[in-house]
Specification:
Mean pLDDT is 95; it is low at 1-5. Helix 1 runs antiparallel to helix 2 and helix 5 (191-199) packs parallel to helix 6 (214-226). The protein is globular. By secondary structure, the protein is of the alpha+beta class. The strands form 4 sheets. Strands 3-4-5-6-7-8-9 form a 7-stranded mixed beta sheet, sandwiched between helices. Helices cover 32% and strands 27% of the residues. The termini are far apart. It folds into 2 domains: 6-147, 2-Layer Sandwich (Fructose-1,6-Bisphosphatase, Chain A, domain 1), CATH 3.30.540.10; 158-270, D-Maltodextrin-Binding Protein, domain 2 (3-Layer(aba) Sandwich), CATH 3.40.190.80. The longest helix has 22 residues, at 12-33.
């Protein structure tokens, strides 16, 4: 990809404001459907999509693409175009991360919007329209929850760590081999929401043993970075975004750097 002179791009604060406002408005659309009547379809492999997903996605694509027509676009609910690969900046969006929880009436879901520049997330916004939590971050500008600065936990004593895990992974027993190693497991819906909560110090670590897509983690990755943490895959690699294949394998860990490194050693040793 050919890098361009970025001096003509809008300021980071301007980009963050645009993403934040768009997330809140998309959240209003989703909230109107929450615990109401809507259509549910299966995309395959127990992956549902609802009217709310599509309505929020249509709104976000319209508002963000009109505001920044030169940027690329990648969303879970939009047919992918590899034209995005040649864009220096690209929106990476999940209009409703946590669709299963949304359907079940559990408020573990968020609107997730990230802006990526040269494969790195530089803006991240997560908005929970039920709890009204809004996690925001921009590169080198810090991270915030409802306007207040946040910081990830600095506790990396493994036997005391609180880990956020997937509800589905927990139901399938994937974390049972580790119950005597870590302090506590909390099953929470939405990958993106778990990343926001971890960044805010509500847990010490987030981990998943299953592959994820770029839109699941991009905004959360930006927020984790800005609280002094890191997100890596289970091979120990940081994630590079706007790739031809959006799938990130084999799993993920995020949190304070020392806690992430210790968790990686445990999870890879058990394999």
């Amino acid at each position: 990809m050919n890098a361009r002179n970025t001096t003509n791009f809008p300021s980071m604060i301007s980009e963050l404001k645009l993403a934040k406002n768009a997330a809140i408005e998309a959240g209003k659309i989703i909230e109107n459907y929450f615990q109401a009547d809507y259509e549910i379809k299966e995309k395959g492999n127990h992956n549902p999509v609802t009217t709310a997903d599509h309505a929020a996605d249509s709104y976000l694509k319209d508002i963000l693409s009109k505001a920044r027509p030169e940027y690329g676009w990648l969303s879970e609910e939009t047919i992918d175009s590899h034209e995005r690969i040649n864009k220096e900046r690209i929106w990476v969006v999940d209009p409703l991360d946590g669709t299963k929880e949304f359907i079940e009436g559990i408020p573990n879901f968020v609107v997730s919007i990230a802006l990526v520049e040269n494969c790195e997330p530089i803006v991240g916004v997560l908005y929970n329209p039920v709890t009204k939590e809004i996690f925001t971050a921009a590169k080198s500008k810090g991270a915030f929850l409802n306007g207040e600065p946040i910081q990830c936990s600095n506790s990396n004593n493994v036997s005391e760590m609180v880990m956020l895990t997937s509800r589905s992974e927990t139901r399938r027993g994937l974390w049972e081999p580790y119950t005597q190693i870590f302090g506590e497991f909390r099953a929470v819906g939405s990958v993106a929401y778990k990343l926001g909560l971890t960044a805010a110090g509500e847990a010490d670590i987030f981990a998943s043993l299953r592959p994820k897509n770029e839109w699941d983690i991009c905004a959360g990755n930006c927020i984790i970075n800005e609280v002094g943490g890191k997100l890596i895959d289970l091979m120990g690699r940081r994630v590079s975004f706007n790739q031809e294949s959006t799938l990130i394998e084999p799993g993920l860990i995020a949190g304070e750097i020392g806690a992430v490194d210790k968790t990686l050693k445990i999870l890879t040793k058990k394999k």
